[in-house]
């Protein structure tokens, strides 16, 4: 190599080395979250323009655009609606990646499974202080929905496109099997009904569990809660291997072994519409799609209870609205104002009407919802039965995935329940210690 | 010209270079060097830098943990599963595509009616988008509504639940991948077959070689440049597979090859950019090593006409 070649190589290496030292994260402190410092809002006026990143849950882009126009008319604040992904995960990926390069949205849609990761990275601000500074009220949000975003005394999002699990059944199949036209009230009844449905129509799957690609652990959570089990109690993961959890999961495994339940790959709601399934647990957000596709009568009910008789057994899902921690105080205020407007008592009902998601305010007038769709009453009844989700499933990075794959081993491969859950507990504990514990 | 005179000629040329030569070099090569530096070397070195950090993507802070990410990848059950899945997937798809591609190439090389159409039909999956191919196949694999269900029923069997078990998920992914790349191998092997001098085949026949002997002793050795090229390119391709796998099994269970695991760890559920960077470095070194081995040892057995 001649002198020029050497000089060029040294130059490139030096440039790269210099760039390396100037970029990337600060390595002087500990990994993980940046402490969410308190913002001083004194004398700050809301910004005149903000960006709202989301995936328009429930095909709500027209609604969101309309809301932005009305909001601008009311407050003078312009909201730029940005399609930041086709689902919650893509929005989270784009939002997190944009934190490195800058330019992330001021208000962002975060799912129940993605907000905590953003919090760990210090990317989203506690909404309590911003709402307080903007003189906005959070007390009328359904407590359980709001508390899904609560951690260490602060909330990191407000509920927006929230769904919950309901029981969906084929009314015609129930009639043929001589069953009453309502969802089973207990898990024992689920078993009895399923056996009768199988006897009446052996070709139809009596009951289906979702697969790992359709979040099987979400639906199974309800079975656990109904029978006194759980995935965790905050950061204590021992409930995952408790007797009540193991017996509940053994019940689920037996349902497949005995042939009155099956695990289906993909989205069960698609298969349900074809008439191949008689009963399933599904998101309330999918009711209208299922009813539209089905060529039979579809029934909707609340989830069955179990041994404990506890009615607080309904897990929620969906997404909320979070505020970018790194945006200016003025934009934070404007973002909080738009989040409040989008989820106001009146607008949350309109949003539910269009998308099928649940109203997020306790003072929302839901009469119009049930008048237009009587099945929505089961959704409203389920709202009173909500319980915040287990940390192991929604807050531990990879928690839901570990539980989903473990359940697949239990339900599909008929693996030993205790051993599988002990292994899952070890994995989730490891992921917690690596990603969350400081 | 001896070594000494060659050296003095080089020195003479160097002395004769004018400053404007360097200016021209910078003007013409500079933009390319800058682009390569910005988009190849810079990310490469940054990736190396990130691989020694415990860093969640998007976080402002990170902790230097040395080689811990590498240790984890080489010792954790998930890391070992990535090696296993990548190895099975790569070996099966490379061998499957190449062996079937060679057979198809031999078939379409015959003077039979409809071979042009067959060649086009075989090649067309290669130009299709991997996402589209995977979506169509995922419908076909559906045990309730997919066309394969009827094929199994015809044989008196029920369709497997392809994507519920890790083994069948990987099998399905290999089938789709081989189907997509079969045409590519066929066309290249076909081109290789066409370039074999007919007089060599004729000579083998005249010497009394059977068809099998001619194929294995003459045709196959003369196809070795094509085989070598396909082996290198298909191996590199298979080890970087992602799109088809992600569509077939979004959670990655059973198909978490290197690239899928990098995606899962960095942008997916974990957001562990440091750990994902370490896997990227391991992938880079593995690919470089495989390529070097192929060029150093396999290349010697290649017969260039």
Q: Which terms summarize this structure?
A:
heterodimer; A: 438 residues; alpha/beta; D-Maltodextrin-Binding Protein, domain 2; 2 domains; nine-stranded mixed sheet; two-stranded antiparallel sheet; 19 helices; 13 strands; 46% helix; 14% strand; B: 305 residues; mainly alpha; MetI-like fold
Structure characterization notes:
The complex is a heterodimer of chains A (438) and B (305). Chain A has two domains: 49-162 and 318-380, 3-Layer(aba) Sandwich (D-Maltodextrin-Binding Protein, domain 2); 164-315 and 388-435, D-Maltodextrin-Binding Protein, domain 2. In chain A, 46% of the residues lie in helices and 14% in strands. Chain A has helices spanning 3-22, 61-75, 88-101, 115-120, 127-133, 143-147, 171-176, 187-200, 216-226, 243-257, 268-273, 287-293, 329-342, 345-355, 367-372, 376-383, 391-394, 399-411, 417-435; strands spanning 49-54, 78-83, 107-111, 124-125, 150-151, 154-155, 158-170, 208-209, 262-263, 279-283, 298-301, 314-324, 386-387. In chain A, α5 (127-133) packs across α13 and α18 runs antiparallel to α19. Chain B is mainly alpha-helical. Chain B folds into two domains: 18-64; 68-301, Orthogonal Bundle (MetI-like fold), CATH 1.10.3720.10. A two-stranded antiparallel sheet of chain B has the order 1-2. In chain B, β1 (53-54) and β2 form a beta hairpin. In chain B, α5 crosses α8 (166-194). Chains A and B meet through α1, α3, α4, α18 and α19 of A and α2, β1 and β2 of B.
């Amino acid at each position: 190599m001649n002198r020029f070649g050497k000089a060029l190589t040294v130059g490139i290496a030096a440039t790269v080395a210099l760039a390396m030292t100037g970029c990337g994260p600060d390595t002087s402190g500990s990994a993980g979250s940046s402490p969410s410092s308190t913002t001083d809002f004194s004398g700050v006026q809301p910004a005149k323009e903000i960006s709202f990143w989301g995936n328009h849950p429930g095909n709500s882009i027209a609604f969101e655009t309309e809301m932005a126009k009305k909001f601008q008319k009311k407050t003078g604040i312009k909201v730029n609606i940005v399609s930041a992904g086709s689902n919650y995960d893509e929005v989270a990926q784009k939002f997190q990646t944009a934190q490195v390069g800058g330019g992330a949205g001021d208000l962002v849609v975060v799912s129940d499974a993605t907000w905590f990761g953003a919090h760990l990275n210090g990317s989203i601000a506690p909404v309590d202080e911003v709402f307080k500074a903007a003189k906005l009220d959070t007390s009328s949000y359904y407590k359980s929905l709001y508390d899904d975003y609560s951690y260490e005394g602060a909330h990191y999002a407000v509920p927006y496109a929230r769904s919950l699990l309901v029981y969906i059944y084929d009314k015609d199949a129930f009639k043929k099997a001589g069953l009453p036209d309502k969802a089973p009230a207990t898990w024992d009844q689920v078993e009895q009904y399923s056996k009768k449905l199988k006897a009446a129509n052996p070709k139809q799957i009596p009951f289906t569990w979702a697969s790992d690609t359709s979040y099987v652990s979400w639906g199974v959570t309800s079975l656990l809660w109904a029978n006194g089990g759980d995935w965790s109690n905050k950061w204590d993961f021992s409930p995952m291997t408790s007797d009540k959890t193991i017996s509940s999961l053994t019940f689920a495994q037996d349902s497949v072994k005995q042939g009155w339940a099956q695990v289906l790959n993909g989205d069960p709601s698609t298969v349900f519409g074809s008439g191949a399934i008689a009963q399933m647990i599904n998101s309330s957000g999918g009711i209208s799609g299922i009813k539209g596709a089905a060529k039979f009568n579809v029934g909707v009910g609340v989830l069955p209870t179990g041994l404990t008789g506890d009615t607080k057994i309904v897990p929620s899902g969906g997404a909320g609205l979070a505020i970018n921690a790194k945006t200016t105080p003025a934009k934070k205020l404007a973002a909080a104002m738009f989040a409040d407007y989008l989820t106001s008592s009146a607008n949350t009902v309109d949003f539910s009407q269009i998308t099928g998601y649940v109203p997020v305010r306790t003072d929302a007038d839901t009469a119009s919802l049930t008048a237009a769709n009587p099945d929505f009453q089961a959704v409203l009844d389920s709202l009173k039965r909500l319980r915040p989700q287990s940390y192991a499933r929604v807050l531990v990075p990879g928690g839901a995935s570990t539980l989903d794959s473990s359940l697949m081993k239990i339900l599909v491969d008929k693996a030993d329940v205790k051993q599988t859950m002990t292994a899952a507990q070890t994995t989730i504990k490891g992921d917690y210690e690596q990603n969350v514990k400081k | 010209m001896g070594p000494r005179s060659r050296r003095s000629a080089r020195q003479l040329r160097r002395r004769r270079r004018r400053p404007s030569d360097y200016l021209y070099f910078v003007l013409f090569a500079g933009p390319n060097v800058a682009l390569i530096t910005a988009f190849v070397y810079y990310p490469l070195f940054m990736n190396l830098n990130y691989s020694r950090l415990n860093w969640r993507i998007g976080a402002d802070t990170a902790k230097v943990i040395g080689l811990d990410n590498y240790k984890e990848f080489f010792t954790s059950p998930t890391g070992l599963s990535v090696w296993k899945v990548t190895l099975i997937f790569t070996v099966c798809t490379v061998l499957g595509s190449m062996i079937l591609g060679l057979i198809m190439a031999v078939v379409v090389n015959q003077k039979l009616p409809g071979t042009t159409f067959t060649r086009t039909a075989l090649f067309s999956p290669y130009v299709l988008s991997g996402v589209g191919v995977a979506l169509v196949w995922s419908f076909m694999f559906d045990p309730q509504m997919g066309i394969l269900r009827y094929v199994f029923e015809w044989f008196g069997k029920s369709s497997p639940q392809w994507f519920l078990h890790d083994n069948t998920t990987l099998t399905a992914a290999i089938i789709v991948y081989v189907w997509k790349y079969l045409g590519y191998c066929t066309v290249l092997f076909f081109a290789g077959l066409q370039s074999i001098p007919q007089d060599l085949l004729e000579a083998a026949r005249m010497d009394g070689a059977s068809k099998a002997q001619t194929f294995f002793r003459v045709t196959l050795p003369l196809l070795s440049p094509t085989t070598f090229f396909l082996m290198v390119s298909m191996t590199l391709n298979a080890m970087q597979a992602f799109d088809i796998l992600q569509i077939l099994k979004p959670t990655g269970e059973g198909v978490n090859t290197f690239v899928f695991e990098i995606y899962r760890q960095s942008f997916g559920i974990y957001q562990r950019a440091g750990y994902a960077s370490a896997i990227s470095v391991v992938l880079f070194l593995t690919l470089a090593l495989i390529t070097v081995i192929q060029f150093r040892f396999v290349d010697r057995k290649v017969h260039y006409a």
